[in-house]
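Note to self: keep these together.
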Amino acid sequence: MLADFIIRTRKAVGRLPTNGVIFKTIVTSDLGKAIAEAHQVSVHEVLTGFKYIGSGITEDEQTGANTFLLGYEESYGYLVSPIVRDKDAVQTCLAIAEMTAAWASQGKTLLDALKELFERYGYFRDELFSTMFEGGNAHEQQHRVMEKLRQHRPEVEGLVLEAVEDYTAGTRVCIQSGANKEEKVERLTLPQSDVLKYLFNDGSWMAVRPSGTEPKLKIYLSVRGDSEADCQTKLQRLKAAIEPHVTAAEK
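Structure:
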């Protein structure tokens, strides 16, 4: 919603830069990306952690390649102005208040505005759940699960897997459709990180990564659908597909 508000208000007064950019992490919903791309605004995806967004801002300032518009991550971190290099709730609250007032002037609530975005760009829904590991070998258990996932890809009912991104190997394996299902390997440009991301033909995806601070795996589910009910069904199918892979190896 902030992406939509910032882009549209800047465009309305002729202040939307031609090289504007929005930063988001690879485990964050793609709704903002869909909004930005509809307005020809670039989206740069970075690894989890606001430090990567901050680094991207600094690099763009040094090169002049892009003009920062917004940075945000799945865990409710936002940055509206690059006067700092970390998430900043103070400036974001001001932006949300301004956005709320703008919609209220049209007789609409933020929920009304969100529904309009869904109707325009498609319905999106996201969910995060975790698998905890006990004992002194938690790190080993996490590693074992990740390696099994690399060997055995989850299959999701009703969805076709199009690509698998492995940020440890630095590869994106594109799975071609057809009888042969040939695979094409591309290189990722982001730094190495123990993350697996599965991308499906309808724009849905799921990602798995070990927590950096706790003995657990974090599983991110993101779906794109034609309605709220469609999204809910897809979420259930994603979760049903991945849960056996992250729990069976836990024991």
